[in-house]
Amino acid sequence: MQGRWECSISISSLTLFTFKMVWLQFSVISTLTELLVVYLMNKQTKSK
Question: Where does the chain cross the membrane (predicted)?
């Protein structure tokens, strides 16, 4: 029983770690996209 419990703990922590990594990548990508959009908008308004 002890071994199975440790296994389930490691699986849940691994899932949590993967979720954190995906969330981190998503927030970084969304931030970069936002910056890119702002940059392009500023570029367009300056060119007019």
Answer: 22-41
pTM tops 0.70:
no
Show the beta-strand stretches assigned E in the chain. Answer: none
**Burial (CB count within 10 angstroms: exposed 0-12, middle 13-18, buried 19+), residue 6:** exposed
Cα–Cα distance between 16 and 31 in angstroms, integer? 22
**First vs last Cα of the chain: how many Å apart?**
71
Cβ-based neighbours of 28, under 8 Å, separated by 6 or more? none
